[in-house]
Design a protein that fits this description.
Elements: H1 3-20, H2 37-43, H3 46-54, E1 72-76, E2 82-85, E3 89-90, E4 98-99, E5 107-112, E6 119-124, E7 130-135, E8 145-148, E9 153-157
Antiparallel strand pairs: 1-2, 1-9, 3-4, 4-8, 5-6, 6-7, 7-8
């Protein structure tokens, strides 16, 4: 293989990878709870709107939910979908509320290349709101760390 074919192959691969992130996926699907952009802006705080609807990330150690240790349920701040049980919450030391498992059917995932390398985005299965990301460095029994934005959730005490 000569240099020209190698560089051409690399350029083609990079272009395909760049375009792949724009292909329709689970996150673009229709959700049972849908509002117009204007309705979302009216319903949510400005910061919750940025996170849930524009996939922003809140600053670490700013959410009161990071220090929430009571028994209860963490729900989507956009549509009230129950997402995580307090029984699966753990202190990851990252500054964001972290869980080792969601409630059954509560969340969906999709591949995310927004910062240049692949991650797995987590979104609400009911409204599609961006919640955070899941990583493979969590505790047993799942080994997962669902690192969520606190502003994207509400806590419902038991």
């Amino acid at each position: 293989m000569d240099r020209r074919h190698f560089l051409g192959g690399m350029a083609t691969g990079a272009a395909a990878l760049a375009l792949w992130q724009f292909l329709p996926g689970e996150a673009e699907a229709a959700y049972p709870y849908a509002l117009t952009d204007a309705q979302w802006k009216k319903k949510l705080s400005p910061w919750a709107y940025k996170v849930l609807r524009q996939e922003a990330t809140e600053h670490p150690f700013t959410s009161p939910l990071n220090d929430e240790h009571r028994a209860g349920i963490f729900a989507c701040a956009g549509c009230d979908q129950k997402l995580f049980s307090s029984r699966t919450k753990f202190d990851s030391g990252t500054g964001w509320p972290s869980f080792w498992a969601p409630l059954a059917g509560a969340v969906g995932t999709r591949r995310d290349f927004s910062i240049g390398y692949p991650r797995t985005e987590v979104h609400c299965a009911r409204c599609g709101g961006h919640l955070g990301h899941v990583f493979d460095d969590g505790p047993k029994p799942t080994g997962k760390r669902y690192c969520m934005n606190g502003v994207a959730m509400a806590f419902i005490p038991a």
